[in-house]
Structures are given as C-alpha cells and as structure tokens.
Amino acid sequence: MKARIAVLLAIVTGTAAFAATAPAAPAKSSAASAGNCVVVASSNKDFSTLVSLVKQAGLVKTLSGKGPFTIMAPTNAAFAKLKRTAPDTYTAVTTDKALLTKVLTYHVIPKRVPAVAAFAVAKVRGSVKTVQGESIKFSLRERIGLDDLFLNGNARVIAPNVRCSNGIIHGINNVLVPPSIA
Questions:
Q1: Residue ranges of the alpha helices (H) in the chain?
Q2: Going from the N-terminus, what domains does the chain have, and what CATH number goes with each?
Q3: Which of 46, 101, 111, 173 is the most buried (most CB within 10 A)?
C-alpha cells in the first residue's frame, strides 16, 4: 500500500513540476487585440505595396476608423502583376491621387463580410457595393475539388478572414479596377 501511495505521489509531483515549467499557451488572438485594418495590413509584408498606396492616397485615417470594413487586399504580387501586364494602368493609378483613391476604395466594402457570407453571395452570383460606389461581383470556381471565391471573375481570394478590430481583410491575387475606369 505504501508503495502505491509513493508512486501516486511521484506522479502527481512530477506532473505539477512539468506544468510549472511548460511554456504558457499563447493568448488567443482576437479582433480587438489585432489592431485596425491598417495596423494589421502594415504588419504583413505581403501587403506593403497596398499600405504604401493607402498612405499615398491619404486613406490611413479613414481605414483606421470605426468601420466595419471588409478590405479585398491585393498582395504585393498582385500589384507587381498589374505593373507587368498593364504598365500604363499601373502608372496612371499610382501617379494620380484621385484615380488611386477610386481604385483603393473599390477594394473596400463598408461592412463586415466574412468568407462564409462572401461564399453565400457567390453561390447566387451576387454582388456587393463598395465604398467607391460600384459593386464587386462574387463567384465560385471549382479547383481541385474545392470552390475558390473570385471577385469580378479574375481575382481569387487567397487569404480569407484576416481579422482586424474594425473589420476583415481578404487577401487577393489581382488588383480590382472599377468598371467605370477599366
């Protein structure tokens, strides 16, 4: 009986010692602790071109505001692709503040649209109005047995549901150009 108690005591003591020396579990990330959309995008190197252009357009204060916003955020690769495939458009957009503002605000939806809601809109081939005033068309395309979410038929959502305190960012692989200036 004493042997069993000694083994049990050793197990309990060893477990307590292990628990005391184990690293603490990381804190759960919440939208409130993530920072606003500009802060979150600034902390991701894949969005550095977008953040630079948001600053150039004078939209930092707006996109840091209360929101909620959903930002369809082109990655650096998306901007590089636009520069490579449509250099005149890229130059026009990046050198004309009014045009840049139109293009960037076309990437912003004035409400929180998580991926599940975006998929629901895409299933009925619906669209959502942007801050710029025109709408983005949502659609689904099957790829390797899964549905991918597309915007205006050519921009694929590649990083959905990046949470921010004032909204959501969905990383996309192409720059969206409003139909009125395309």
A1: 2-21, 31-34, 37-42, 48-57, 60-63, 76-85, 87-95, 97-105, 115-123
A2: 32-172 (2.30.180.10)
A3: 101
